[in-house]
Amino acid sequence: MDNPRRHSTTSVTTTATSNGEFSLQSRSSNAPRHNVPSPADKADPGITKRTTRRSKYRHVEAYHSKLRHSSLSRDSGATTSFLGFRNLMVIVLVAMNFRLIIENFMKYGVLICIKCHDYRKQDVVLGSILFALVPCHLFIAYVIELVIARQAKNTVGQRKKDASAEENERGQQVYQRTWQFAAFFHTLNATLCLAVTSFVVYFYIHHPGIGTACEVHAIIVWLKNCSYAFTNRDFRQAMLNPSSESALPDIYSSCPYPRNITLGNLTYFWLAPTLVYQPVYPRSSHIRWSFVAKRLGEFFCLAVFMWLLSAQYATPTLRNSIDKIAIMDIASILERVMKLSTISLVIWLAGFFALFQSLLNALAEVMRFGDREFYTDWWNSSSLGTYWRSWNRPVYLFMKRHVYSPLVGRGWSAFAASTMVFFISAVLHEMLVGIPTHNIIGVAFFGMMFQLPLIAITTPLEKMHDPLGKVVGNCIFWVSFCVVGQPLGALLYFFAWQAKYGSVSRG
Q1: Quick check: pTM over 0.90?
Q2: Residues in the chain where the model's pLDDT stays below 50
Q3: How does the protein associate with the membrane (predicted)?
Q4: Which of 137, 206, 207, 429 is catalytic?
């Protein structure tokens, strides 16, 4: 039907219309040669037929028409995504660990035994007694504060009756003497809290797991005791010597001193997921019990997961390292550290999520505790200093509020104050690891003190404008902390335990 006429400038297309007639349509040769059906054509596409001719391809397309850079080049303006490499690393990591699982099963079989246990009845009894008695030290601190608060109220009352300078001076002297006695009893109470627990755990509780739980509980209560005493001391000073410098945050106005010295207020602080005492905290409006159930479910599942990894994978690796450490076979020790690093890293990450994300959030929900920033993105830390400020926020806030800031306020340099913070933290870490394992060998202590030179090395990297500095700092953090530090510490404490007892069940 179609018989197009070809011209040098135009082409003619014969089209059959809906009424059977023919029409000629001319079109410029430069116009697009596409069949665009009319509405009538769409109604009956079988009627219209067109003949088109494709233009001949010309090998002159300008593919190189602008300045461009390779994706991995620094000169490239666009941000390159490494999602594919991330997926590859995850696949390789899964494959490598799956190989370790198969190798472990072929060597040892199933080592997990639910009915087997290696704790003694004495460990359980003493641990339960310590868990019941340790919180009593907080309530002893309440009694001390109650006595001092009454003395402070009497001082304020006498000042209102007699506003003379002599009476004011006398009141200040009485208050200072009272505070000296209170400081002594607070120190004695907090020290006994930690010392008695440490003594019982070190000499009478053999199982390291039960001992660690008791020691963690005692350290937490000790820190809360210190915060309770320091904070209320400053509240009293603000009440007795009101000035612009002693002004308190507005959030405390709903519960001013000494109205905060109550059993209910102290009980909330005891159970709240914080180490920093405040009379008032931000509170959520209600409790979401479904949220609590999910977080507790996560905690339980991760606790079982960590137990399985420890029993099936970590324990054989540690036991196989004893002979190598005894003869100081450096190459074999390094190989064991590298092998243990994967297991310890997985256990540590699972423990982090179980504690800071699951358990503390569940506790915060029950207590309607509003400030739930228990950690920030510590995994992106480009320096060790950033890590310690991000990883365990409750401890960091305690150290900043009650150690670092007061020392700086007294004229200490930032470095000296930081050194004192890490010294206190090092002592607590050594107590937390060395006392339950009955081996105070100083590895945890010196490991914490070694953070100071690492901070000095990585801080300049963090401040570099070049992103490479932050990448190097983050790599130093992961290698020093998770690839070398934790596995090596675990090996040394396990070796000391084996040298002393031979196994967990022997005592």
Answers
A1: no
A2: 1-34, 504-507
A3: Multi-pass membrane protein
A4: 429
